[in-house]
Amino acid sequence: MISQVHLTRLKLYKDKRIKHYSDLSISIRSMASKTQVGFVGLGNMGNPMAKNLIKHGYPVIASDVFPESCKELQELGAQILDSPADVADKADRIITMLPSSPNVIDVYTGPNGILKKVKKGSLLIDSSTIDPAVSKDMAVAAEKLGAVFMDAPVSGGVGAATSGKLTFMVGGPEEEFNAAKELLSCMGANVVYCGQVGTGQAAKICNNMLLAIGMIGTAETMNLGIRLGLDPKLLAKILNMSSGRCWSSDTYNPVPGVMEGVPSANNYQGGFGTTLMAKDLGLAQYTATNTKTPVPLGSLAHQIYRMMCARGYASKDFSSVFQFLREEEGQ
């Protein structure tokens, strides 16, 4: 089955209104804007991202392995379907936001996966954080069926997903970037083209390794200052006007009572889970090994977050490393 987007591209090409067939992605998908968009994966990140598409006037067709995750979106007017394949049957622009590489492989190539019913000319955007090699494999599989796959992992967490201020790191064919950006701009403040498929994932893995190292450093620093008798709010204020300032200190402080509206103010509920951080650090470790890149602090951060998962912190936000360190004092 050929998509309406693909047919319109072909018509314009034959009418010679556009010189190169590959140039059609920008103009055609702009013409097709406000047509339905598929969304698979309605977890902590996917749910608010899909809501922002609806807010921008896009009819959303969605699916999630957990039906209860779909209720809120359905109340906002989204059409909920049983499987990713069903979504692909009805939409030729699909965004996926999933926890891990195995989930992505299943959603795209599984028995009820997107590629079972994908239309030629479809644009598939995966915002999961996964192994770059898996993104490349999905792109090859999609290309064989006449579809385009792009990796577009995000940074910013649940807060930025809710406010529509995510940063997207995009990998894929450059001629398709503006078509992807049209949708991603509804959910993010920054949409950056990184290169071919897999480079978006590479940028995200590097970012999250630094984020983990920074969060551990902030937690250690705050804990030391408190033990030395400093008021945590005062210490945070000093850090944030000094050279030690970082995102973990001024935007996502891990110490309860220092900031409002962050997981540390809510018993570390919500936000970016420790399990997911450990997974991302595992990806960084794997790619570092493959490229023979020394990452001693990244390796140590990976060990710390794996220990946290084993000691009851798996479902808490990754900033709970502060609480973990405090409890380690008594060991």
From TrEMBL:
Positions of the 3-hydroxyisobutyrate dehydrogenase-like NAD-binding domain: 198-324
UniProt keyword list: Branched-chain amino acid catabolism, Mitochondrion, NAD, Oxidoreductase, Transit peptide
GO biological process entries: L-valine catabolic process
E.C. number: 1.1.1.31
Reaction(s) the record says it catalyses: 3-hydroxy-2-methylpropanoate + NAD(+) = 2-methyl-3-oxopropanoate + NADH + H(+)
InterPro entries per UniProt: 3-OH-isobutyrate_DH-rel_CS, 6PGDH_NADP-bd, HIBADH, HIBADH-like_NADP-bd, HIBADH-related
Protein name: 3-hydroxyisobutyrate dehydrogenase
A GO cellular component annotation in the UniProt record: mitochondrion
Domain 6-phosphogluconate dehydrogenase NADP-binding: 36-195
Source organism of the structure: Cyprinus carpio (Common carp)
Cell compartments where the protein resides: Mitochondrion
MF annotations from Gene Ontology: 3-hydroxyisobutyrate dehydrogenase activity; NAD binding; NADP binding
Enzyme class: oxidoreductase
Superkingdom of the source species: Eukaryota
Pathway it works in: Amino-acid degradation; L-valine degradation
Family: Belongs to the HIBADH-related family. 3-hydroxyisobutyrate dehydrogenase subfamily.
Pfam families attached to this UniProt entry: NAD_binding_11, NAD_binding_2
